[in-house]
């Protein structure tokens, strides 16, 4: 049995990536019950919804599962920046007939905090993962108090060393190909970011804990390649997006299954932090990386009504269509089957 399987208590070296907004406990359960590590993204769950999902996981599997949180620091509101941001979106409000005065500002995603840690303590999830670094030492100690294993993503060798020094059990090496938000947290310089197969072997050499490869891995050959470069396992996101257990919207599914999925870019337009998604009209016209967009997660509020109105008309021009660079593994097959196939079974 491999090191990752020993550390996490799982049968297959496959972690289903937590993917906020496109899945809940159903996908996580299917993967955990198939022998991989299923993940529940919690960054956008209010306490009641989190409690309900944790109860479902506890009731429906005896296998390990992972719960995932963001740990960014919440930026102070910046009225001037918000105004400039809305100004740059004004032509779209006019086109879609939206009154910008009615748009509430506000965070869409909350960082991991003490109240959430106490809620988790009632359920004692076996694995807890973080994106954008780690919470403070006291919060991390609380999570460890029930024996949870801790995972976080590194996008550079420096981030991997930083995470190892703070005692994480497993490090995800997140390459530039990966879908969704970059985990980058020690810098905001995107020129530091590398592809998976450049980053992975460098992190493997730099740390002693098991390293999991993420980004662009979509089939069993990709998994074998990652293992050959020293990975203890893989974390796969995009390839699970068409599984029936995911809650990916019809619009997002159609884009993933089309040729449009071959063109992705990092964009901060939807949340304020760089994340990889399929190129949309908003990204093309504004440029995918904006200097005007407010800090994470404050950019979200001003785009949300555009997204909602366009989506109601079946149009994804303003929707975050998160995807990695390799959507070729996206198929509408049960997540258990995909998990077994990734593991070569
Ligand atoms: C739709 C989507 C949503 C994501 N949301 C999260 C999240 O909530 N938390 C997180 O840690 N990572 C998130 N990620 C990033 C994944 O953890 C992982 O790094 C990535 O999916 C791996 O690359 P791949 O998509 O090419 O498989 C997301 C990825 C996608 C595609």
In whole angstroms, how far apart are the ends? 15 Å
Please name the CATH topology of the largest domain: TIM Barrel
Low-confidence stretches: none
Question: What is the string of SSEs from the N terminus onward?
Answer: HEHEHEHHEHEHEEHEHEHEEHHH
**CATH architecture label name of the largest domain:** Alpha-Beta Barrel
The portion of residues assigned to helices is: 25-40%
Strand content: 5-15%
Explain what you see:
With 345 residues, the chain is an alpha/beta fold. It has two domains: 1-72 and 109-247 and 330-345, Aldolase class I (TIM Barrel); 77-108 and 258-326, no CATH class. The chain has 13 helices and eleven strands. Strands 1-9-8-6-5-4-3-2 form an eight-stranded parallel β-sheet. Helix 7 links the parallel strand 5 (149-154) and strand 6 (170-174). 50% of the residues are buried. The model has no long low-confidence stretch (mean pLDDT 97). The structure holds flavin mononucleotide. Flavin mononucleotide binds next to strand 7 and strand 9. The site of flavin mononucleotide has 27 residues, from strand 7 and strand 9.
């Amino acid at each position: 049995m491999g090191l990752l399987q020993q550390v996490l208590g799982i049968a297959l070296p496959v972690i289903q990536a937590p993917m906020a907004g496109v899945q809940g406990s159903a996908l996580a359960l299917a993967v955990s019950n198939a022998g991989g590590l299923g993940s529940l993204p919690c960054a956008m769950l209010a306490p009641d919804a989190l409690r309900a999902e944790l109860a479902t996981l506890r009731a429906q599997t005896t296998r390990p599962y992972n719960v995932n949180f963001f740990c960014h620091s919440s930026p102070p509101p910046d009225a001037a920046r918000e105004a400039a941001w809305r100004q740059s979106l004004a032509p779209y409000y006019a086109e879609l007939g939206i009154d910008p005065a009615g748009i509430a500002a506000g965070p869409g995603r909350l960082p991991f905090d003490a109240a959430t840690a106490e809620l988790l303590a009632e359920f004692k999830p076996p694995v807890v993962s973080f994106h954008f670094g780690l919470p403070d030492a006291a919060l991390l100690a609380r999570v460890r108090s029930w024996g949870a294993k801790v995972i976080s993503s590194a996008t550079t060798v420096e981030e991997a060393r930083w995470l190892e020094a703070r005692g994480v059990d497993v490090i995800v090496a997140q390459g530039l190909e990966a879908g969704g938000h970059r985990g980058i947290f020690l810098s905001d310089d995107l020129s530091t970011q590398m592809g998976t197969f450049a980053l992975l072997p460098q992190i493997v050499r730099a740390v002693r804990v098991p390293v999991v490869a993420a980004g662009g891995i979509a089939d069993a050959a990709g998994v074998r390649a990652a293992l050959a470069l020293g990975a203890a396992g893989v974390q796969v996101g995009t390839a699970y997006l068409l599984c029936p257990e995911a809650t990916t919207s019809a619009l997002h599914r159609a884009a993933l299954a089309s040729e449009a999925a071959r063109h992705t870019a990092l964009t901060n337009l939807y949340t304020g932090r760089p994340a990889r998604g399929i190129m949309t009209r908003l990204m093309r016209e504004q440029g995918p990386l904006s200097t005007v967009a407010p800090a994470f997660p404050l950019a979200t509020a001003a785009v949300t009504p555009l997204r909602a109105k366009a989506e109601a008309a079946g149009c994804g021009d303003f929707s975050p269509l998160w995807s990695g660079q390799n959507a070729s593994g996206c198929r509408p097959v049960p997540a258990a089957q995909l998990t077994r196939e990734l593991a070569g079974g």
